[in-house]
């Protein structure tokens, strides 16, 4: 698991996650991501942050295999708290965060992009919450920031994915890119436009926009997580996670 930070353009930090094969993050990874995003935003040399990933897709959520091979509830609690910290780090980052998405963006990935300030994506990118099929509940808070309310509900209940082009039609995706190279350029172009502004004003603008948000994303997501714990205590969650691990092992 690696999280690296670079500064390819003036005023812009790029935080890159790389956890093969599909960027399903272990507990430690969520905290590392949170720390990297917060550090990039605190650095006064940066007026914008691009969040991206290497490998096959942007993010596949939590590492369910880690959860199932860990005795007791330690990994479940760690994943829930780690996700909450990473999502909050994106939302509370002192400067705007642009999510550059390719391939799959699932589960926890929705939490990251739903809390970002802007999204650019490759045309083949897909977004979804397979939470119910994994014995979990959560990130409806963030999916609701990407699509209209009734569509959010249908997507949540079914686990169906939507394409980047569909999200663009809903106004959630700033720009579409034909490939990874163009994605990087689109993300850096938007980040550079933001970074050219006065850094102090950008930070005030980010705080002001968060302050008028109609939903407290931290509290809303934490409320959702309570139902994940209930599903786990009832045994429902374990059955679904075990079935997922068995399927993945075939």
From TrEMBL:
Family stated for the protein in its record: Belongs to the enoyl-CoA hydratase/isomerase family.
- Keyword Lyase in record: yes
Q: Report what the protein is called.
A: Enoyl-CoA hydratase family protein
Q: Which CDD domains match?
A: crotonase-like
**Keyword Calcium listed:** no
Instruction: Indicate the secretion signal residues.
Output: none
State the organism named in the record.
Streptomyces iconiensis
Q: Which UniProt keywords apply?
A: Lipid metabolism, Lyase
């Amino acid at each position: 698991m690696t999280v690296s930070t670079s500064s390819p353009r003036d005023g812009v930090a790029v935080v890159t996650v790389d956890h093969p094969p599909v960027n399903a993050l272990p507990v430690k990874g969520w905290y590392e991501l949170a720390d990297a995003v917060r550090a990039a935003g605190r650095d006064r040399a940066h007026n914008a942050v691009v969040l991206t990933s290497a490998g096959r897709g942007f993010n596949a959520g939590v590492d369910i295999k880690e959860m199932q091979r860990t005795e007791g509830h330690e990994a479940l609690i760690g994943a829930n708290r780690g996700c909450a910290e990473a999502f909050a780090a994106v939302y509370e980052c002192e400067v705007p965060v642009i999510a550059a998405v390719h391939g799959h963006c699932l589960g926890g990935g929705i939490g990251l992009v739903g809390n970002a300030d802007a999204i650019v994506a490759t045309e083949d990118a897909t977004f979804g919450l397979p939470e119910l099929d994994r014995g979990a509940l959560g990130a409806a808070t963030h999916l609701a920031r990407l699509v209209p309310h009734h569509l959010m509900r249908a997507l949540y209940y079914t686990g169906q994915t939507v394409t980047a082009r569909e999200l663009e039609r809903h106004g959630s995706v700033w720009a579409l890119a034909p490939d990874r190279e163009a994605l990087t350029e689109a993300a850096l172009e938007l980040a550079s436009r933001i970074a050219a502004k006065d850094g102090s004003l950008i930070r005030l603008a980010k705080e002001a926009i968060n302050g008028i948000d109609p939903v407290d994303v931290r509290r809303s997501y934490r409320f959702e997580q309570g139902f994940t714990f209930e599903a786990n205590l009832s045994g429902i969650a374990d059955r679904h996670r075990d079935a997922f691990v068995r399927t993945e092992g075939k």
